[in-house]
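Final paragraph of the annual report: two paired records, presented back to back.
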Amino acid sequence: MNYLITGGAGFIGSNLVHLLVEQGHNVTVLDFLTYAGNLYSLANLEGKDNYSFIRGDIADGNLVSHILIDRGIHGIFNLAAENHVDRSIG
């Protein structure tokens, strides 16, 4: 399966990415790397054939469409979020 995980550099997202990659799924992570994302949490996956990282915003419809089509995505885990109420409203 080909999965897109938004917010994959966050705490929950990075754990899900590791699980899916270890299970042999193809995983594309889309993360804007705000204060909540930590690319270091995915560093040990660099170079794996079934993992890729894209720095970008889920609000960019063209980027998301391009990823879905080009990578043949079967499922999406949307874990991109703001953890403060004020930031979520914005």
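The closing record of the year follows.
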Amino acid sequence: MHITTPDPLPRPRHRRWAMAGPGLATAALAATALVTAATPYPATVPVATSAELPATARTGVKLSFPAPTGTRPIGTVALHLVDRSRPDPLVKSRPYRELMVSFWYPAGKAPDLPLAPQMSPGAAADWDKNSAPALGVKPGEVDWAATPTHARVGAPVDRPAGGLPVVVFASGDGGPRTLGTVLVEELASRGYLVVSVDHTYEADQVEFPGGRVERAVPLPEKLTKKVLARLIRKHTQARIADMKFVLDQLASLDQGHNPDAESTPLPDGLAGSADRTRIGMLGQSLGGSVSAQLLHDDSRIAAGVNLDGMYVGPVARTGVDKPFLQMASETHTRENEPTWKSFWGRSTGWKRELRLTGAQHGSFTDLQALLPQLPGAPKNPATAELIGTIDPGRSVAAQRAYVAAFFDLHLKGRSTHLFNGPDGRYPEVKFIP
């Protein structure tokens, strides 16, 4: 269930959200439309799997992601972080806060290492049973654990002498960190260290080492506007504290410490790889609001991106004075979202607002790449409701181009003409004055 925009995705009564998109493959559609011609990745590669995944899930249709367009091979590692300085803000019986995060980065060649799957086995099994049915996907119909990313598990970090600029990714409310894979991989392939964060007990499911899966706290039976607003504020506050803790752990990592609770061996070169003078935030929906709030509050953040999220909390009234990019779906405007109007009017730094013609709220998640792979998806009205009518390949290409150009400009100091006005390569992108 997505609860942070005026145009939310369908909300089944028995599920937290319907945001995470299945993308069943007619293999032809998305693979042909989305995968770029030039790619440093081989067509057939091993994928990390687990025998613990139920056989019913492992026999389903397999999905695929569009290959990143950057020139760098990428690696990834998942770490278990524990914040013992605070009790869990969402489950009071927990004496400390636990998070799972993934690091994505440009990597040295490591062809013998497996590719990471989008979802870990336990999370995929839970998604198959409890989340996918809200999208009309029957348990076992999709092999959720078999969607390969393009990142080698534990590959050595290929870093420049000055370190890698950092982007921290935040998903929409209720969404696991895995739903931003399309953009996260793209940034890593272009030379960024990307950190994606799961917010435990808010995300539908989070798998910890050993196969333990923690599910989201159930929503209240009566979701009145008052209850919903209070819940969103609670999630926002928890997320802000989570992100600050993650940034603290990034500093610890750069000082040579291993922050992983199990002391999992780190990829060669990961410690000390971050240039912490160049950190950006990227968020979808509620993650976009949190990106703005952290940009306002935390001096460590230099630039931020909001993908179609309303603003929650003080930043809606204060705006920001640092570089900020806002990308919107076709029908989400300052006229129908008051927090956009107040935020934009009070933001005094470099800023651009772009609207993606034909896009819907789910277009800014992996739904855009995966959902069209469902058999019959082009004729399914639910598809347009979730990801609009925009061509999936065009949508992914535009988002990748503008998000990467924004961070290139403000974290790497690379000039770009993309923000000077409409570009004929991306006619779907409209500039909002």
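Confidence is low (pLDDT under 50) at residues 1-57. This concludes the annual technical report; the extension proposal builds directly on these records.
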